Amino acid sequence: MRRPMVAGNWKMHGTRASVAELLEGLSDQSLPDSVEVAVFPPLLFIDRVVEGLQNGKIAVGAQNCAVQAEQGALTGETASSQLVDAGCSLVLVGHSERRQVIGEGEQQLIEKFRAAQAAGLTPVLCIGETLEEREAGQTLNIVGSQLGSVIAALGIEAFTHAVIAYEPVWAIGTGLTATPQQAQDVHAAIRAQLTAADAKVAQAVRLLYGGSVKAANAAELFGMPDIDGGLIGGASLNADDFGAICRAAGN
Ligand code: PEP
């Protein structure tokens, strides 16, 4: 039985005032114990979010980490060991905004995934196709190859301590959501790919869906057999909406 997870990606949003308000709103939420809840604030606010979520019900993750686990001469980057020291337990790897806007490539993502695990962080590997790729009937090839390159480099065992988020790029921040069946089809293919490498690992790994999840559509998505929760962008900036999504994952 996989424990559902709901993770809030705050992206590059927040000021000291708005983060304080969001933390207050989150502490008012009743969150189901059956769901693992996490937030991924901008690096700048990780300290205060860790401090503000002292009750331990919400884990804190980073949106990015360096390609090396240990501190060193790498201006502007953050080592995963530093993230652990700051109180993080998770890190996003390969979010489509980093792949597409920042230009991170497969090799870099593999190194980040490896560095995260070396420091004791759980990587949340984000994979997903663009609209063009979906329309060309390439969804499963793209997602399969994004996942396959990490399996090939690090081995299937790397997924015993990892989470996978399927995020169709065309659904991120657009208001367009994959239908529950569209998302389930891709999640089932991801699980089948993992199963071909190791059935036990495949059964245990959480597969999150991300792409315009809201309180109104969360329950239906999370009701699908291979969807184990969500990675939430925009709606995670509102504590009431995020709380409602977490509760939907607990039902
Ligand atoms: C995301 O940024 O990972 C995401 C899914 O964003 P949104 O929920 O806003 O589509």
TrEMBL record:
GO terms for biological process: gluconeogenesis; glyceraldehyde-3-phosphate biosynthetic process; glycerol catabolic process; glycolytic process. PROSITE patterns: TIM_1 (PS00171), TIM_2 (PS51440). It is found in: Cytoplasm. InterPro entries: Aldolase_TIM, TIM_sf, TrioseP_Isoase_bac/euk, Triosephosphate_isomerase, Triosephosphate_isomerase_AS. It catalyses: D-glyceraldehyde 3-phosphate = dihydroxyacetone phosphate. GO terms for cellular component: cytosol. Keywords: Cytoplasm, Gluconeogenesis, Glycolysis, Isomerase. Substrate binds at N9, W10, K11, G173, S212, G233, G234. CDD domains: TIM (cd00311). The active site is at H95, E167. GO terms for molecular function: triose-phosphate isomerase activity. NCBIfam families: tim (TIGR00419). Involved in the gluconeogenesis. Catalyzes stereospecifically the conversion of dihydroxyacetone phosphate (DHAP) to D-glyceraldehyde-3-phosphate (G3P). Belongs to the triosephosphate isomerase family. Homodimer. This is Triosephosphate isomerase.
